[in-house]
Amino acid sequence: MVKYPRTTWKHRLYIPEIIRGLMLTLKFLFRKKSTLQYPEQKHTLPVGYRGVPRLITGNDGNERCVACKLCEVVCPPVAIYIEAEEAPDQNYKERRPKVFQIDYGRCINCGFCEEACPVEAIEMSQSIEIVGESREALVYQKEQLLAVPADPRKPQLRGL
User: Fold this and answer.
1) Distance in angstroms (rounded) separating the CA atoms of residues 41 and 19
2) Residues 49-87, buried b or exposed e (16+ Cβ, 10 A)?
3) What is the chain's Cα-based Rg?
4) What local confidence, expressed as pLDDT, does residue 136 receive?
5) What pLDDT digit, counting tens, does each position of 3-53 carry?
6) What sign for the dihedral angle of Cα 89, 157, 141, 79?
7) The pTM is what?
8) Comparing C-alpha atoms, which of 63, 76, 74 is closest to residue 121?
9) How many CB atoms lie within 10 A of CB 9?
10) Domains of the chain by start residue, with CATH
């Protein structure tokens, strides 16, 4: 049998705990406010911030993706869908994505797609402003994914 210490009548009324809670509230009440006027002032995100995935183009302006579907396989919420087609120019790749969709309503920004890509065709951008009026508006097609802006602070990859 466990014996608990006897409590006094002050502790049974919870007055010390209520006073401690009020003191903590007053401490935060008079702190300096850091409100950001969002549309006019943008957040400064750290360099390693994982925003939404975006597709990268090579130096020639074509997408780097070779439609290997590794990002589709590794995506935990199954937010990526790819259909492959034969590439018209057989210079450096056999296939390219005919359809490349990312459902941002499902995407959890885990970065697994970036890690799995063998040609580094997908990266996590600094974009945090993904909005849509319906579920269908959150499904981004290949052209929209290529248009997501890159982070100017991040060094761009060379090659392809």
Assistant:
1) 38
2) eebbbbbbebeeebbbbbbbbbbbeebeeebbebebeeb
3) 25
4) 93
5) 888 877 777 778 888 999 999 999 988 888 778 888 898 888 887 888 889
6) positive
7) 0.70
8) 63
9) 7
10) 53-146 (3.30.70.3270)
Q: Tens of pLDDT along 95-137?
A: 889 999 999 999 999 999 999 999 999 999 888 888 889 999 9
Instruction: Give the helix/strand (H/E) hosting 53.
Output: strand 53-55
The structure tokens listed for 7 are: 């409590």
Selected residue with higher pLDDT from 67 and 61: 67
Residue type, 106: R
Identify the burial level of 117 via C-beta atoms within 10 angstroms of its C-beta, where 0-12 means exposed, 13-18 middle and 19 or more buried. buried
Give the Cα separation of 137 and 70 in Å (integer). Answer: 25
* Tokens representing residue 136 in the block: 């269908």
3 state DSSP class of 134: coil
CB 119 within 8 A of CB 69: no
